[in-house]
Design brief:
Number of helices: 11
CATH topology of the largest domain: Rossmann fold
Low-confidence stretches: 1-10, 15-30
Strand order of the largest sheet: 5-4-3-2-1-12-13-14
Mean pLDDT: 89
Helix content: 25-40%
CATH class of the largest domain: Alpha Beta
CATH architecture of the largest domain: 3-Layer(aba) Sandwich
């Protein structure tokens, strides 16, 4: 077993500072335009971290109230998170429960009562193959970056590092230490690298080139890079759930902040990027709401509902 290289004393991991993107709605390009105001959505699709959960892990009462107000009259609520279900579930409960839920960036998807039960079974679940997982393990060890893997509802690491401390605080769940060479079969839902942004920016292109079509490499937030099965995405998970519900992409209003949200935002009838998200995401989506620290999702929903007289 090889130990991952530790980061510096501070760990080098970053979270967006509260208030960094604080701006009035009138200062942000792409506020609720006439086309969006004219739409009557049947589904609200939300990312969690960086969208409704702040950098210091808060979910405001204002956001909870706005989501509840949107659901009045029978509208549906879908949560699309990169988190594991067990990690996202407490936040989803605070939001009033979900009609549909995806975890691991779309690798697992739940519908109906199963989405609201802690032990509900997903109707769709995809994992990395054993062959790809072993290749990833070798690549991860050679990288010198902090890494860990999710298997089912648990995550594991080979050495205690600053990246482990960072992720335990983010997920709210303790990981388990393991020598992956002693595991007979690696049943991974995803592999995650946790490292300073500059290190991940240098490593990601090489990892994508090496893996090719065997797996998808995606940034899921500041200081995090994930590897998931090919074909897995939040848009694909949303599509699978919509099909079961007899709905289409045009029925969806979606919010997200990171690279792993982009496909969902572009697929939705209307997608809205958070002001605290990367410039590349905001530019690609076009519509932008205030930052997560400023309750951007709530502000957008309130204005849309008020304009439509849906008090």
């Amino acid at each position: 077993m090889r130990r991952a290289v530790r980061a510096g004393a501070s760990g080098g991991f970053t979270r967006r500072a509260p208030g960094r993107y604080s701006r009035r709605m009138s200062d942000i390009n792409g506020i609720i335009d006439a086309a969006a105001l004219a739409r009557d959505f049947r589904v609200l699709a939300l990312d969690l971290d960086g969208t409704v959960i702040t950098g210091d892990y808060r979910l405001s009462d204002r956001v909870v109230s706005a989501v509840a107000r949107f659901r009045e009259g029978g509208r549906l609520f879908f949560v699309a998170s990169g988190r594991a279900r067990i990690s996202s579930f407490p936040w989803v409960e605070k939001l009033g429960g979900a009609d549909g839920l995806s975890a691991f960036n779309g690798a697992s998807v739940w519908d109906g009562p199963a989405a609201r039960e802690r032990d509900g079974a997903p109707f769709l679940r995809v994992g990395l193959s054993e062959c790809v997982a072993r290749e990833l393990l070798a690549l991860a060890r050679r990288s010198g970056l902090d890494f860990h893997a999710w298997s089912g509802e648990k995550w594991y690491y080979e050495a205690r590092t600053p990246g482990v401390d960072f992720y335990e605080a983010r997920s709210g769940l303790p990981g388990g230490v393991v020598d992956f060479d002693e595991v007979d079969e690696l049943r991974w839902s995803k592999l995650m690298f946790v490292a300073p942004e500059d290190a991940l920016a240098e490593f990601a292109p090489r990892l994508r080139e090496t893996l090719g079509e065997k797996a998808l490499v995606v940034s899921t937030g500041v200081s995090m890079l994930e590897v998931v099965p090919p074909g897995v995405s939040k848009a694909a998970a949303l599509d699978a759930w919509l099909l079961r519900r007899g709905l289409g992409r045009e029925d969806v209003l979606a919010f997200g902040d990171a690279e792993n949200d982009l496909d969902m935002l572009l697929a939705a009838g209307v997608g809205v990027a958070m002001a605290n998200g990367p410039e590349a995401v905001r530019s690609a989506v076009g519509r932008v709401c205030p930052s997560v620290e400023d309750d951007g999702v709530a502000a957008w929903l309130e204005e849309w509902l008020d304009a439509r007289g849906k008090a």
